[in-house]
Amino acid sequence: MSTQTPPAEQVGTESDDSHSLVRSKARYGDALFSGISSGSALMIFVILAAVATFLTSQALPAMTSEPDHTGLSEVSALGGFWQWALPLAFGTVWSAVLAMLMAVPLAVGIALYLSHYAPRRVARIFGYLIDLLAAVPSVVFGLWGLMVLAPTLHPFYKWLNETMSWFPLFNAWQAREDGELRPVLAVGGQNMLTAAMVLALMITPIITALSREVFLQTPLLHEEASLALGATRWEMVKQAVLPFSRPGIISACMLGLGRALGETMAVAMILPGKVLVTFKLLTYNNPNTIAAYIAQNFPESEGFGKMQLIAAGLILFIITLVVNMIARGIIASRREFSGAN
Amino acid sequence: MKLRAVAALGLTAALALTACGGDSTGTPSTTESAPAATTSASESESTSDAAALSGEVAGMGASSMKVAQGAWTAKFMEDNSGVRISYAPEGSGAGREGIQQGKVAFAGSDEAFSIEDNKAGSFAACSADSGVLDLPVYISPVAIIFNLPGVESLNMTGELAAKIFKGDVAKWNDAAIAELNPGVTLPDEYIVVVYRGDKSGTTENFTDYLHAVAPSVWDNEADKEWPYTDGGQPAQQTDGVKSSVASGPYTIGYVDASAADGVGVAHLGKDGKFFAPDPEQAAAVVDNSELESGRAEGDLAVKLNREAEGYPIVLISYAIACAKYDDANTAELVKAYLTYISSAEGQALAAEQAGSAPLSDEMMGKVKAAIDSINA
User: Fold this and answer.
1) What CATH number did the domain enclosing A160 receive?
2) Does A76 touch chain B (CB under 8 A)?
3) Which of A87, A134, B53, B283 is the most buried (most CB within 10 A)?
4) Rounded to 5 degrees, what are φ and ψ at A135?
5) Structure confidence by residue, pLDDT tens digits, A266-280
6) Could you give all domains of chain B from N- to C-terminal order, each with its CATH number?
């Protein structure tokens, strides 16, 4: 399409030129544009390399240091950098996984409804709303989670802990040294489950918006063929839409996962985090996430402590990198079956 | 508005032009005369105001006084335009070293110099024959706050507080609490401790108290970080603790006393006498504590008596100045500044900005007399 527009423009702008359709002059515009766009593409590599260099140069001394090196007191209390960093990495991944478990089915469901079930008008209004939700700043989600969602859910958590404590994830009782069981239920509902719910809410619009676009691109012929074979609408979705869209859904999920892994403000506000590993959802002993930990501790730390925080940042960087590479791998291996080409 | 801006612009342009003209024509007389005139003007200004202070003085020390010192230095410099005064909140140890090594003219510290260390000659900032004066200028109370529906205050001893915060007392209706609070209906609910998750002087102040009054229960030294992290919920900053306690029934926490409104507040003491964390009660415990004996006149190190009448969880921060300076102007400046911060006005400013408890009149008098003795 773009190759056909220049002649049309030339007719308008250079109407006095008799050889308007002949490629005669060197096109500085073209050269400039291709220069800018390839420059921008290169810039991505430069920025990525700069970030990686900065993180690595700052982080290496912290990662290899002795445990008793003066830095963050929590690092020396736990007996070493990795004893401190791995629980944080766990918290980051665990919160993101919980958020994904809640967000993906919800988001795919919404997207399917919008693309294949809802009346056009409803779909349009809903689409606007979803986009609006994606634009809400994370600090607002954090405030809402802390002041509205968490206190509202607290009675439910209490009930859950009392009636379903046989289920390990909902168990918020801890034995003291003398064997006495004490409740360790989080105050005001500020626990991992609330934080994951808010994270899920934050990534749902991203996954929804992208999945909807992908669903809408399913070739009409595939859908019609499926329906013509006697499939119900759900069977048609299962046979035609989902296989076609799988790589798209995965990319959408990875974008959402990326946001969940790196989300700082909302988690820092809602989750009273500690450096530990636990799968329990309702206690006040919650594993903190890397991003929130950095945000909470950067202002007060100095010198070597800052380097340790940057090293944690490098770990987060690597986690997101690995997640994205896995996603790329999945998309690449599924491409030939998807029918998208 | 617009007109004035244009006029100002024109004026500046004109000035710039004349300055340029002076340069290019090479007539130094005109360009030199202007600065000469301004200096003479400023000199006459300062001489006309005979008592006005001028010069620069630096202080360093305890970060507990950071906010108060910030407010004090700003106000002092506003009132005395010729003075530059600074306070670097690097920590008590850094402040004490600073005055020993002569880096700063005065220091701030949460601890007074010991008698052994406070010897003439060991302070590079002072005259060779001078020691330093420890002057209590900042009292900061910490309140224990809790959330029990329908209960506004509870009596506690230091030991009970230590047991509650350590988790040794599990429920609100524990006999140890009920015994001190006859007539209060205590619920059969577990106590949830909320502590500061970030490093904090408040935590240090509070754990220092718990360790001092109940060392057998609270076996950890004072620290900026909460020691028993297993048994409680962390919260960020004073606001975080406050809102967690305010929103969660059956919780207990600790905050600077200035933030303890709208929640239940513990009264501390023993033997039937319990004191609220009011500024007056905080100042009273300092007054009722003895000054350390064996010190030079004007060296006012308080031996804080946590059992004395008054509210016991207080932090006393000292301003540390030389008894005698080599430089008369430095002595004047330090005296003027310390006089200001220990005055009723200075104390009121700190109370407003940092939530400290103002010194009592009695203590203010002692500090004033000590400051007046500073000389050069």
Assistant:
1) 1.10.3720.10
2) no
3) B283
4) -90, -5
5) 999 899 889 999 999
6) 142-281 (3.40.190.10)
